[in-house]
Design goal:
The chain is α/β, with parallel strands linked by helices. It has a single domain, classed as Ribokinase (UDP-N-acetylmuramoyl-L-alanine:D-glutamate ligase, 3-Layer(aba) Sandwich). It is 30% helix and 27% strand. The chain has helices at 31-41, 59-63, 131-139, 149-152, 169-172, 183-190, 197-211, 254-265, 271-285, 296-306; strands at 2-9, 13-18, 24-29, 46-52, 69-75, 80-85, 93-99, 114-121, 144-147, 153-155, 161-163, 178-182, 221-225, 229-233, 238-242. The strands form three sheets. A nine-stranded mixed β-sheet has the order 5-4-1-8-9-12-13-14-15, sandwiched between helices. A four-stranded mixed β-sheet has the order 3-2-6-7. Helix 6 packs across helix 7 (197-211), helix 8 runs antiparallel to helix 9 (271-285) and helix 9 (271-285) packs across helix 10 (296-306). The protein is globular and about 50 Å long. The relative contact order is 0.14.
């Protein structure tokens, strides 16, 4: 039995990113790319269970973070997505599917000889990860983390992507220990205006209430990301940290980086400390395109420089 701090189920993506001035950059994307690198950089043992075409790219090299991430590949067509950003801050974008994995992740893909402190379901769109994966992980007593993008975003006939609410949310939310949404996704799921901090707090309360509706005894935490801050709600208190990047050239992958950092840090830290590390790490990451490539010491220096009031 091999044991990891963190296991992530999700496919890498061959992304075509077009900025607001029309400049095209082709790069590796997908939640797994950003999430695995951030976790490994902080010293956590990581398993990335990826569906991809092994002959196309050496994914162990791309995702391995200098050998700190074990990559378990399941043969599949590659996912490729085109992201068109409409503003300089990259807050508004439209996405189109070029190709995608087949078949989706199912409960049968969960490796039987592997254990992890937390299992992160990180599909890129609806149909990438079957809901049976969440149910199976929960039934096995595992700690489940979910980014709802993979259950709200879906492909339409012209291959563009749109969002709609998660039909089975009230059944599945009680199985999820860590739930991540951005402000727009929180608005879709709750119907509330999440453009302000009070609106995001109210959305987090509603989501947490649904998460506890089945009487789950597990601790559950809601993360809502916004371009100004990251918010955590644990059912009793709100915790917030501002984001302080000096530029946004590395904006892509913000949520994935924040979430993996937080859920890994929560294994040994209280919410405030874990959230501070996540906010500082992703702020630093957003200053350079691609996944996080620094180390814990660089994050600690960033905290001292940009979050000095929180340094003991």
């Amino acid at each position: 039995m091999k044991t990891y701090n963190y296991a992530i189920l999700g496919q890498p993506s061959l992304d075509r990113n077009i900025d607001h001035e029309g400049t095209l950059v082709e790069e590796f994307g997908g939640a797994v790319t950003y999430a695995a690198h951030a976790a490994a950089a902080l010293g956590y043992t990581v398993l990335a269970l990826v569906k991809c075409q092994a002959a196309t790219v050496d994914w162990q090299s791309v995702l391995g973070h200098d050998g700190l991430v074990d990559v378990l590949q399941i043969e599949s067509p590659n996912t490729s997505i085109q992201n068109t950003y409409h503003t300089a801050d990259r807050e508004r974008r439209s996405c189109a599917v070029i190709s995608r994995i087949a078949p989706c992740y199912s409960a049968a893909d969960i490796p039987a000889d592997t254990e992890a402190a937390v299992w992160h379901c990180a599909g890129l769109m609806r149909g990438d990860i079957g809901e049976d994966v969440i149910e199976a992980l929960y039934a096995q007593g595992k700690t489940v983390a979910v980014d709802v993008q993979g259950f709200l975003r879906y492909e339409v006939e012209d291959h563009s992507m749109q969002f709609e609410d998660w039909a089975n949310k009230e059944k599945l939310l009680p199985m999820i220990a860590f739930l991540k949404l951005d402000a727009a996704e929180a608005e879709i799921m709750t119907g509330l205006d999440t453009s302000t901090t009070p609106g995001r707090e109210e959305a987090a309360r509603m989501l947490h209430a649904w998460s506890k509706s089945a009487g789950s005894a597990r601790p559950q935490e809601i993360m809502i990301t916004h371009n100004t801050e990251v918010l955590i709600y644990d059912g009793a208190d709100f915790y917030k940290q501002p984001l302080k990047p000096r530029n946004l050239t590395g904006r892509t992958g913000r949520g994935d980086t924040t979430f993996s950092t937080y859920i890994c840090e929560r294994q040994t830290h209280l919410i405030p400390e874990a959230l501070l590390t996540a906010a500082a790490l992703v702020s630093l990451k957003m200053e350079q395109p691609g996944p996080f490539r620094w180390d814990r010491e660089a994050v600690e220096r960033y905290i001292c420089q940009f979050y000095p009031s929180q340094v003991a």
